[in-house]
Amino acid sequence: AHIFKSGWTGVNERTFIAVKPDGVQRRLVGEIVRRFEKKGFKLVALKLVMASEELLKEHYWHLRNRPFYNRLVRDMSSGPIVAMVWQGLDVIKTGRKMMGETSPSDSMPATIRGDNGVEVRRNAIHGSDSVESAHREISLWFQETELSSWDVCSTNWIYS
Ligand code: IDP
């Protein structure tokens, strides 16, 4: 249930970001966390998880009629995922820009996917694509108690 979404706007906007199994295997966790930290976003939740097939099927439910759906669910359950929630102004849209396009070969250099791969099935990262999917995905992957409210000391130097 979407019980904890009120007030997630402006500087409190939140998105669900995950380092996929291929990204974890390729040791990109630090690199991806570093990019979101450096940009000025706030880490609100983070865990390493082996996702169940059930959760992954729900996560990608909107793609259930696509030919790659089963393979995608299998790939996503092939190893641990680093599931995260990041917060900040326009974090959903900016996170998508930082990721690049769905296919790494279509992604610009300096994006996460553009710098770290060549194939669509090995694109290292997931990020929510809208406010609705961010709400849905955060409540699917996290309990409310797993999200931390905390003050970042540099906030006044990131926002004026
Ligand atoms: P996104 O991850 O950029 O939001 P979606 O269209 O939501 O892209 O697709 C989810 C994931 O499914 C992609 O990240 C990619 O790993 C995989 N995928 C998308 N399109 C294809 C395809 O044509 N073949 C195989 N896998 C695909």
Describe it:
There is one protein chain. By secondary structure, the protein is of the alpha+beta class. The chain contains eight helices and four strands, in the order E-H-H-E-H-H-E-H-H-E-H-H. It has helices at residues 21-25, 29-39, 53-59, 69-76, 91-99, 112-115, 131-141, 155-158, and strands at residues 14-19, 42-49, 81-87, 125-127. The protein has a four-stranded antiparallel sheet. It starts with 13 loop residues before the first strand and ends with a helix. The mean pLDDT is 96. The structure holds inosine-5'-diphosphate (IDP). Inosine-5'-diphosphate is lined by residues 63, 68, 72, 102, 120-121, 123, 126, 129. This is Nucleoside diphosphate kinase. Its EC number is 2.7.4.6. It is an enzyme of class 2 (transferase).
Ligand names: inosine-5'-diphosphate
Distance between the termini: 35 Å
Overall average pLDDT: 96
Number of strands: 4
Query: How helical, in percent, are the residues?
Result: 25-40%
Rg, Å, rounded: 15 Å
Which stretches are low in confidence, meaning pLDDT under 50 for 5 or more residues running?
A: none
Strand count, sense and barrel status of the largest sheet are: 4 strands, antiparallel
The secondary-structure class comes to alpha+beta
Strand order of the largest sheet: 2-3-1-4
Count the DSSP helices: 8
Shape: globular
Roughly what fraction of the amino acids lie in strands? 15-25%
SSE pattern, N- to C-terminal: EHHEHHEHHEHH
Binding site for ATP: 20, 68, 96, 102, 113, 123
Cofactor: Mg(2+)
Domain Nucleoside diphosphate kinase-like: 12-149
Family: Belongs to the NDK family.
